[in-house]
Amino acid sequence: MTNFENLVDRYFALAPAEDPEPYFAQFASDAIVEDEGVTHRGVDAIRAWRAVVPEVSCDVLGVDAVVDEYVARAEISGEFPGSPVVLTFLFTFTDDGSVATLAIRS
Predict the structure, then answer these.
(1) What span, in angstroms and rounded, lies between the C-alpha atoms of 14 and 79?
(2) How many CB atoms lie within 10 A of CB 4?
């Protein structure tokens, strides 16, 4: 498994964890997350976004490197309309392995 696959796997492993702090710690302090057309800048904004995201389970279907971006497709299931759905997660990482950007697309 390549390093970027480990970083993506880390994201999906930490997302449902009961203790949210390791999840937030994987983001750079100035990270940007885009979900449902809304941009969240910085860890405080990412915390606020996650506070309203429904509890879900993820099944990662595949991870690919495309130029400087890492693309994961995952089936997301939970208590929300249209569940389950397959979403695309577009990641970039800092040199130290922190999440720099994450865009979630349907």
Answers:
(1) 19
(2) 18
How do residues 44-97 score in pLDDT, each as one tens digit?
Answer: 999 999 999 888 999 999 999 998 899 999 999 998 889 999 999 999 999 999
CA nearest neighbour of 90 among 106, 77, 105:
105
Strands 69-78 and 85-93: antiparallel
The region that residue 43 occupies, defined by phi over 0 for left and psi between -120 and 50 for alpha, beta otherwise, is: alpha
**Residues near 48 by beta carbon (within 8 Å), at least 6 away in sequence:** 40
Q: Which domains does the chain have, with CATH numbers?
A: 3-105 (3.10.450.50)
Q: Supply the pLDDT for residue 67.
A: 87
Residue 50: strand, helix, or coil: helix
